[in-house]
TrEMBL record:
Residues 66-117, 129-180 form the DUF1541 domain. Keywords: Signal. Residues 24-61 are annotated as: Disordered. Pfam families: DUF1541. Residues 1-23 form the signal peptide. This is DUF1541 domain-containing protein. Residues 44-57 have a biased composition (Basic and acidic residues).
Length: 186
């Protein structure tokens, strides 16, 4: 059974890397939606099976309460766009798009969506566009500890979802983060 699990993990990793490989365009510099021109080691995404950071405040009146069936309008990762999902968490916070250079080396990642206030070093005060911060988020290899520039700051509700990838992959649990405008009710 252990060998079967390792085989499945290996095949899943190769599938993810193959899907990301199509984003390797030499002249591409906009890395929004996680399309990156980086080494394969920095493509190690941890958006699923994550833990909500300490100090997150549950949303008092989310548009999509926990348990709501939604469709994902954005594709942060392969198989996400138009996927059917269920909201498993909703939190009020400040949400950021950031640009950073991975601590593991490689090209700058531009407009990474999304990091929340509670995933920043010294998160006491909200930051604004142009501010420099240190990331505590560990969404992808080389992200944690990286210095980043805030590209966008949004006050609002951020969502955690479980979804069925449209590319036939395994169910993704606890994907962090989706903004309200990236979801639509079923």
């Amino acid at each position: 059974m252990k060998k079967l699990t390792m085989l499945i993990l290996g095949v899943s990793s190769l599938t993810l890397l193959g899907a990301c490989a199509s984003a390797n365009e030499p002249d591409s510099t906009d890395h929004s939606e996680h399309n990156m021109t980086t080494t394969s080691s920095s493509m190690d995404m941890h958006h699923h099976s994550g833990e909500v950071p300490e100090g997150m405040k549950e949303a008092s009146n989310p548009k999509y309460p926990v348990g709501t069936a939604v469709t994902l309008k954005e594709g942060h990762m392969p198989g996400m766009e138009n996927a059917k999902a269920t909201v498993v968490g909703a939190y009020d916070t400040t949400i950021y798009a950031v640009t950073y250079t991975p601590t593991t080396g490689g090209d700058e990642v531009k407009n990474h969506k999304w990091v929340v206030q509670e995933e920043l070093e010294n998160p006491e005060e909200p930051f604004t566009k142009g501010d420099t911060v240190v990331l505590e988020a560990n969404h992808m290899a080389g992200m944690q500890g990286a210095t980043a520039t805030i590209d966008q700051a949004i006050e609002g509700t951020v969502y955690v979802v479980d979804y069925e990838p449209t590319d036939g992959g395994e169910t993704v649990t606890n994907h962090m983060w989706m903004t309200e405008d990236e979801l639509t009710a079923e």
